[in-house]
Each structure stands twice: as C-alpha cells, then as structure tokens.
Amino acid sequence: MGTTGTNGTFTPRPGAAPLPRMIRAQAALETRMLLRNGEQLLLTVIIPTLLLVLFSTVDIVDTGTGKPVDFLTPGILALAVMSTAFTGQAIATGFERRYGVLKRLGASPLPRWALMTAKTCSVLVTEILQIVLLTAIAFALGWSPQGATFSTGVVSVVLLLILGTAAFSGLGLLMAGTLKAEATLAAANLVFLLLLVGGGVIVPLDKFPDAAQQVLQLLPVSALSDGLRDVLQHGAGVPWADLGILAVWAVLGLGAAARFFRWE
C-alpha cells in the first residue's frame, strides 16, 4: 500500500488490508487448495457420488419401502458434510500444523480467529458445491423429496446442515490440533469409514441391535442423516431432537477445539 506525495514521489504506507478483505482472500485460498487436493476431492465429491449412484441403482442394501434413492440421498448429503467439515479439514489442518503453516500464519496480520473463520467459509463453499452436485444427481436418479411445507423444509435442512457443519468442524479441528499429522490422517479416515457404516448413512439404524441403536443414534452423522431423512423423505416438521444432538456436539467439539488446539 502507498500514497503519492505532493512532490510526485511514491511514499510507502505499510499496513494490513481491511479484515474482511483478508478473510475473503484467505477463504478463497483455502477453497482453491481444498479443491486441488486429490485425496480431499476423493472424499468430498467422488466417494459420495459413487455411493449414491451405486446403492440407488444396485439392490445391495435393504433400505426399506420406497425408492432407495429417497432413503439414500439425505444420508449421502450428511456424509458429504462429514467428509468436508470433519475428515478433509482434520487432515489438511493437521499437516498445515506439522509443516509450520499455521505458526507462520499466526505471525501474519490475520488474527487466528479470522483464520478459523476463513476455513469455515471454505468448508461452507465446498459443501454448497457438493450439495448442488449430489442433489442434481439424485434428481436424475428419480429422487422425490417431501416436506411439511416448503418454508419449513428449507429452514429445517439449513439448520441441520449448519449445526452439522459446526459439530464436525469442531471435532475435526480438535483432532488436528491434538494429534500428530500421520495419526490424524489414519484416525480421520478410520472414523469416516466407521461412521459410513454405522451412522445410518447407507444402512438403516433399525438393522442394528436395539442396544447399538441407542448409542448410534446419538452420533452426529446419525442425527444429521436422520434429521434430513425425516424432513426430505417423510415430510416431517422441524426435527428438534436431531437438532439438539447436533447442537450439543457443536458446543462440545468447538469448545474442546478452542481449549486444546495446539498451533505447532
């Protein structure tokens, strides 16, 4: 930055850019880096898309009455949120921490809370792209979403996605800020696979024993997928119970991440 003096010479005027501009620039950078990363692209786009197409067209899992795509689409949307906000963010942030990227960014004019804001914005942008893509594919496969009313359905879905993103982001940042990068990579992928199977995404929770159901339904991915399924498949109103579970996970995850996250 600089100004031109009265004698026509250029006088430097050092200083940070306005905070909103810094956040926008960092968010744009984070989004480009995320979309260019092959492993994260596999997690965020390719795997959910393949699962949606495969299980909607091939009779592999008993999804109950109705079209498989009607059951699967809400679960795959929940999986997309988890893959971006939790798995992808945990792995990327873990390696940024290992290589000293976060430490160097911490010395820049960008405040650390603004860096986290930029990362969250990047996650939200990626999720919007995922949801648009998966929704288009689901419609092509014959998906017929329901809803008590259009406005209630939209509000419910938005609330579920926001709280789900907050919950998974907190858990992802907690993992990335406390474990080594290699451990984060292994643990994040393992959790992704376990929740894919046991989180009600593809396999209905009623297929598990009663005792296991009581535990599994309290998981964030189960609450998100069940809430989306109640609204989009069964036309229910606001799923307060699922929203409550996600809110608790969001508070606990973000609170623990803020308390225990180590920047180097």
The number of distinct β-strands equals 2
Total number of domains: 1
* Rounded radius of gyration (Å): 21 Å
Helix content: over 70%
Shape: globular
How many helices? 10
Strand neighbour order, sheet with most strands: 1-2
**If you average the pLDDT, what whole number results?**
86
Percent in strands: under 5%
Sheet/helix structural class? mainly alpha
N-end to C-end Cα span: 31 Å
* Secondary-structure element order, N to C: EEHHHHHHHHHH
Q: Point out poorly predicted stretches.
A: none
Describe this structure in words.
With 264 residues, this protein is mainly alpha-helical. The chain has one domain (19-260). The protein contains 10 helices and 2 strands. The protein has helices at residues 19-36, 38-57, 68-98, 101-106, 112-140, 150-178, 181-198, 210-216, 220-232, 240-260; strands at 2-4, 10-12. Strand 1 (2-4) and strand 2 (10-12) form a beta hairpin. The model has no long low-confidence stretch (mean pLDDT 86).
